[in-house]
């Protein structure tokens, strides 16, 4: 979940140069261009990321306002989803702003000199908090739906506002603790000087750059474990839970066919449960699919650090995978409220009533309807026409 690419460079020879020296001689123009932002990288930083951030902020704030303004939306499920929205908003802000600052300061892809050692620690620490919080909220909402659908009577006994609050506070607390354990992996700034190729094109680039690195090499492996284990544990556990929910929803209720007067009411309840389940499963699947490439990339890097193992991808391909994985992280944080509206009619209705019907109500209050007035037979309507008032026949 680091803000910038996990691998410092796309070219192996440059990695070797960095590991052996604090000065980098880039006499090869191809190698020199390899550490600079290309057109795709620039488009990501100045175009795609800000767009997805704007979309995510507007959609998540809109969802939070709907939950706040409509009492019927203040459910246990939405308590978790509201905290997920807060985590998404915070991630988008804390990832986008430093990335733009670094891009404006240097056109070297991985240059973090602009944020310094303090930025290495704080920026990545904050981003990791929201990453862990998102994982835990998605898992908690999966557990809540499992209890409501597969163990409804037990759920009614144990679940309440106090327990939900404790679980949410616990999730954020664990997120803070886990993020603290990862700090040593990015708590140092390695400054490297650069000798660029001769030519006017390269003379405007900085003579040095900085990279956030671990305090010790072994720390990186431990920290990556702290990042991956909670994610993959939550992913596989949620997959099992989703399977149990789908199986339970497809079961027929014994004797329901003989209770005709309850059929309509039960059908509405079951339809509502299915919609919520589909919505949350879709949210979870999108979350894990969007997060998985970044985690798999980290796992692959750990494995291929072994010199006896040949990487499946070359340096250029790994660079593409890293950029794509970062776009997916932003997409994931932006689309959740859209998923809610697409998959659940109750959420669509709540959004419509909050943002569309509310505006119509304001407009209607400004219009004087003649329905509220009594006009005797033979009464003149000329007054209303002259004053541009609405006339409705009783």
Automatic annotation (TrEMBL):
Q: Where in the cell is it found?
A: Membrane
- Establish whether keyword Transmembrane helix is in the entry: yes
Domain G-protein coupled receptors family 1 profile, first and last residues per copy? 59-340
Give yes or no: UniProt keyword NAD. Answer: no
What's a single GO CC term here? plasma membrane
Keyword set for this entry? G-protein coupled receptor, Membrane, Receptor, Transducer, Transmembrane, Transmembrane helix
The record's section on InterPro entries has: GPCR_Rhodpsn, GPCR_Rhodpsn_7TM
Q: Which Pfam families match?
A: 7tm_1 (PF00001)
Q: Which GO terms describe its molecular function?
A: G protein-coupled receptor activity
Membrane-crossing residue ranges in chain numbering = 35-68, 80-101, 113-143, 164-187, 225-243, 276-303, 323-342
Topologically, how does it sit relative to the membrane?
Multi-pass membrane protein
UniProt xrefs under PANTHER family: G-PROTEIN COUPLED RECEPTOR, PYROKININ-1 RECEPTOR
The family assignment reads:
Belongs to the G-protein coupled receptor 1 family.
State the name under which the record lists this protein.
G-protein coupled receptors family 1 profile domain-containing protein
């Amino acid at each position: 979940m680091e803000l910038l690419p996990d691998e410092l460079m796309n070219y192996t020879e440059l990695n070797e140069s960095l590991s052996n020296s604090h000065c980098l001689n880039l006499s090869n123009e191809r190698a020199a261009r390899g550490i600079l932002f290309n057109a795709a990288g620039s488009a990501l930083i100045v175009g795609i990321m800000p767009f997805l951030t704007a979309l995510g902020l507007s959609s998540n704030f809109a969802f939070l306002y709907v939950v706040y303004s409509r009492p019927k939306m203040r459910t246990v499920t939405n308590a978790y989803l509201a905290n997920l929205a807060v985590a998404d908003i915070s991630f988008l802000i804390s990832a986008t702003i430093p990335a733009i600052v670094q891009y404006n300061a240097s056109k070297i892809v991985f240059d973090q000199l602009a944020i310094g050692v303090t930025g290495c620690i704080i920026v990545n620490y904050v981003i990791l908090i929201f990453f862990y919080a998102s994982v835990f909220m998605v898992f908690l909402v999966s557990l809540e739906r499992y209890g409501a659908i597969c163990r409804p009577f037990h759920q009614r006994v144990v679940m309440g506002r106090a327990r939900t609050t404790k679980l949410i506070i616990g999730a954020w607390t664990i997120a803070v603790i886990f993020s603290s354990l990862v700090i040593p992996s990015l708590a140092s700034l390695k400054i490297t000087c650069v000798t660029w190729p001769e030519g006017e094109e390269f003379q405007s680039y900085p003579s040095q750059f900085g990279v956030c690195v671990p305090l010790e090499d072994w720390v990186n492996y431990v920290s990556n474990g702290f990042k991956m284990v909670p994610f993959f544990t939550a992913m596989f556990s949620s997959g099992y839970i989703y399977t149990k929910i789908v199986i339970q929803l497809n079961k027929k209720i014994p004797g329901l066919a003989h209770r005709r007067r309850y059929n309509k009411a039960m059908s509405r309840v079951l339809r509502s449960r299915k919609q919520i389940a589909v919505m949350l499963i879709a949210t979870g699947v999108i979350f894990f699919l969007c997060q998985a490439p970044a985690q798999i990339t980290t796992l692959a890097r750990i494995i291929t650090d072994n010199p006896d193992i040949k990487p499946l991808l070359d340096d250029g391909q790994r660079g593409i995978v890293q950029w794509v994985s970062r776009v997916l992280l932003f997409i994931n944080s932006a689309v959740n409220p859209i998923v809610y509206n697409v998959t659940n009619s109750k959420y669509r209705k709540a959004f419509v009533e909050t943002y569309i019907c509310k505006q119509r109500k304001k407009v209607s209050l400004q219009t004087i309807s003649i329905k509220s007035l009594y006009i005797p037979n033979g009464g003149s309507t000329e007054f209303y026409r002259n004053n541009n008032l609405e006339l409705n026949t009783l």
